Amino acid sequence: MIESALNQQLREQMPVAKTLAYFDHAAVAPLPNVAAKAITSWLDEATNQGDLYWPKWAKRVEMIRRNAAKLIGASSDEIALTPNTSTGINFVAEGFPWEDGENIVTFANEFPSNLYPWMNLQSRGVNTRVVQVEQGVADINRLFEACDEQTRLISLSWVSFSSGYRFTNEQLHAIVQEAHRRDIYVMLDAIQGLGIFPLDVAKLEIDFLAADGHKWMLGPEGAGLFYIRQQHLDLLRPLMVGWHSVANPFDFSKIDWKPRQQAARYEGGTQNMVGTLGYGASLELLQKLGVSTTASPVADQILAYTQFAQSELKKLGAEIHGSSAAEHLSGITSFTIPNVELAQLRSQCMDVGVVLSHRDGRLRISPHAYNNQEDLDRLLSLIRTCIR
């Protein structure tokens, strides 16, 4: 495999690469130096100066909001900074003006965060329709066959956490257009693709999007984003409101319930300042490496690695779960190896610093753009030992 200049540049930012072959970015990513620096700077300032630096931090947070908006082709007024993907999904699930008998449609292999919030609506007369998925490949035709005149929302993952199947932008556009033709809104769980693959929510006309920064965006846990199209701002009932939700948030002596005309109305109270600062540093790093709404050298590097890794795994007899079509690949590869106890193999890998996941009876690797040939060789060597 050819390792690019980008690969080396990002690898220098990742201290974890000195000791571990880290293939678990679809779970929790290690932090780059820039994020660690942002966090330790905050820690030093907060420890020694208290809130004297708060205006500086707040200014930086608004810059991060603008960068997050730029990443997906949105306006900063359409971005709320959130603690996780679940929060964004729940903003929609709990804030939407549901009526008894209505339903939402989603896929059966979604991560629980994109199932439980919808299932929780059952007591209010809202049904969740779950579309079965064969071999990790989602079928758009089946998706719409499950819809009817009572369907108000479709919620789906851009990239499947289990199979790694990625909807192309063309597919997403087609889904949104057909949904809107039927007066159905679209919610996108983008956590397994955002930060590496290009996405333009304005062009795609996506209604809502949620993602956390602790996976492919290389940020700390507890800091992510929620996107809502400006025209839908008053559609959702604001939840968990606080001082930060109103039009004049810093006028503490004047009580006047006028919600902000920005997505920030959903942020409620005090933000996770340190987590957001760390997330912002990682996001800025990826954008400097070329990630935008139209292109991503980072994604190109990851896809090249995924294709090479899958080829090498197949040579060892591995069976890849999900689509083999190049346009649907992502950073996630799930696989099995006949006659190999996968849980035991994963344990052996972890013991020697090869980090991967065991999900739904399969092993899952999720390398980033800084992983190299040496990392993959460490994994392949262990697999060869198990199959002898």
- Overall number of structural domains: 2
What is the ordering of alpha helices and beta strands?
A: HEHHEHEHEHEHEHEEHHEEHEEEH
Instruction: Report mean pLDDT, rounded to a whole number.
Output: 95
N- to C-terminal distance: 25 Å
Name the CATH architecture of the largest domain.
3-Layer(aba) Sandwich
Summarize the topology.
Blueprint: H1 5-11, E1 21-22, H2 33-49, H3 54-72, E2 79-82, H4 85-95, E3 103-107, H5 116-119, E4 127-131, H6 140-145, E5 151-157, H7 169-181, E6 185-189, H8 201-204, E7 208-212, E8 224-228, H9 273-288, H10 297-315, E9 319-321, E10 333-336, H11 342-351, E11 354-355, E12 357-359, E13 362-365, H12 373-387
Parallel strand pairs: 1-11, 3-4, 3-5, 5-6, 6-7
Antiparallel strand pairs: 2-8, 7-8, 9-10, 10-13, 12-13
Helix pairs in contact: 2-9, 3-9
Verbal overview:
There is one protein chain. The protein is of the alpha/beta class and 388 residues long. The chain has 2 domains: 111 residues, Aspartate Aminotransferase, domain 1, CATH 3.90.1150; 250 residues, Aspartate Aminotransferase, domain 2 (3-Layer(aba) Sandwich), CATH 3.40.640.10. The chain is 36% helix and 14% strand. The chain is built from 12 helices and 13 strands. The strands form 3 sheets. The protein has a 7-stranded mixed β-sheet, sandwiched between helices. Strands 9-10-13-12 form a 4-stranded antiparallel β-sheet, covered by helices on one side. Strands 1-11 form a two-stranded parallel sheet. Helix 3 packs across helix 9. It is globular. The two termini are 25 Å apart.
